[in-house]
Every structure is written in C-alpha cells, then in structure tokens.
Design the sequence.
C-alpha cells in the first residue's frame, strides 16, 4: 500500500511539475514574461440593459488624458470603424453611466471606442439609458441628440454582466 501511495504521490508531483513547466514555456514563448498584478480603477457601463466592467487606459485627447489620469495616444485617434461608447453630457438621469455599443463576444467588439456625446434637449426629462437601442428610440422622439467627440478611448471591457 505504501509503495502504491508513494507512486501516486510521485505521479501527481510529476504532473504538477510538468504542468508548471508547460505554463512557464507558454508564457516565455509568447514573450510576455511572468504575470503580475497591478491596481487600476475600474468603471461600469451599460450594454443591453446590464452593466459591464471596464478599464480606461488611453485616450486620443490630451485634455481628457490629463483629466482622466490615463495615457495620451494620438495614434489611436486615427483608427476608424469603431463601436461607440456613449457619454451623457450635461443633464442626466440619476445613476447614468457610459453606454456601450458592443461587448466581448459581439462581432464588432473592440477595446477601442469612438466617443459619442449625448445631450438631452431643453424641456426633456432625462431617463436612465441602458442600451444603444434605447438611445436610437429616444433620438427618434427628438428629445436626445448625439455628437461625435472626435475622440477614441481605449477602454477594454474586462467583465461582462458583473457591474
């Protein structure tokens, strides 16, 4: 029994070491090195009625980079064909946060976003907007307008439906 137990422990140890070696090889072959953790603030945004969690890392506007304490990158501002991130500017419903036009798993998802600003018209009562479909419906009523901010944000969504 002791020999069988020792053999089982040895086999487990070998498999564990082999798996560790495989993981190390995989990391080095990609050239990324060992993983580590860092603390970064996360934010929440709506997509199709649920909240997703995202990071803000880079923006193509120097002023926004300074305000948001993120990296400025003129290069990302040249990328076109991106999904939209909608930000309500001015009056907004209580609890309003960003609204995404896509999320991981969607065909058009990208961590880069075209910033689109939403504005409630005078006399309109702001409601909580939780999807791009809702934005389109409200715009048809004439109570909400959008404008291109001419800014690209690098805001990868790191958790879907975890907000």
Sequence:
């Amino acid at each position: 029994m002791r020999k069988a137990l020792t053999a089982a422990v040895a086999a487990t140890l070998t498999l564990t070491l082999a798996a560790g070696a495989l993981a190390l090889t995989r990391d080095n072959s990609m050239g990324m090195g060992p993983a580590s953790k860092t603390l970064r603030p996360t934010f929440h945004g709506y997509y199709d009625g649920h909240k997703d969690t995202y990071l803000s890392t880079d923006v193509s506007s120097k002023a926004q980079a300074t305000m948001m304490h993120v990296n400025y990158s003129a290069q990302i501002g040249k990328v076109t064909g991106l999904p939209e991130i909608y930000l309500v500017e001015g009056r907004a419903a209580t609890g309003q946060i960003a609204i995404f036009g896509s999320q991981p798993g969607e065909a058009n998802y990208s961590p880069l976003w075209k910033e689109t600003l939403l504005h409630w018209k005078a006399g309109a009562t702001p409601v909580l907007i939780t999807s791009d479909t809702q934005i389109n419906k409200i715009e048809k009523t004439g109570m909400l307008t959008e404008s291109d901010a001419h800014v690209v944000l690098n805001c990868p969504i790191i958790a879907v439906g975890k907000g």
Summary: Strands lie at 43-47, 50-54, 58-59, 71-72, 84-88, 98-100, 112-120, 144-154, 157-159. The CA atoms of residues 80 and 139 lie 23 Å apart. The longest strand covers residues 144-154.
